[in-house]
Design brief:
Radius of gyration: 15 Å
Strand content: 35-45%
Distance between the termini: 14 Å
Number of helices: 2
Structural class: alpha+beta
């Protein structure tokens, strides 16, 4: 699994001009799933997401987690995170999981994240053409890959 995590002041995702998910202060997570992903990938990412100290404390130092600041999380599926651009000018998405495999993992990721955070997690609509709006705070943008744990 690969995510782009963005610290936001607010974010929303719309499908056909209708907002389907929105948050205030917190994290926007773009989530890409590949065929090899398992529960282990979900567990590792959720621990990282909920524990990562990227919110400012009273000294204006990034020392607090999304849980510490009682922030919200918005999750949007994004198969293009697994694009291969090695050859030519048209990205290949062969490394992205097919919907029949990706949807259950996407839903499990959200369910486990809800359990960890203790509240509902708004989301986009898997497979839909979505428009994402955000005010990136910082900006702080971090890429995490459960197959490349740097």
């Amino acid at each position: 699994m690969r995510i782009v995590l963005q610290r936001v002041k607010k974010a929303s995702v719309s499908v056909q001009q209708e907002i389907v998910g929105s948050i205030h202060q917190g994290l926007l997570i773009l989530l890409g799933i590949e065929p090899e992903d398992t529960q282990e990938d979900i567990d590792w990412l959720i621990k990282k997401i909920t524990s990562m100290r990227i919110f400012n404390d009273d000294n204006n130092t990034m020392n607090l987690s999304v849980s510490d600041v009682q922030g919200e999380i918005l999750v949007v599926s994004q198969f293009t995170l697994h694009a291969s651009t090695k050859k030519g000018n048209r990205p290949s998405y062969i490394r992205a999981a097919k919907p029949e495999m990706a949807i259950p993992l996407y839903e499990k990721f959200i369910l486990d994240l809800e359990r960890s955070m203790g509240n509902p997690i708004p989301t986009g609509k898997f497979g839909a053409n979505m428009q994402v709006e955000l005010i990136n705070d910082g900006p702080v943008t971090i890429i995490l890959d459960s197959k490349n744990k740097e």
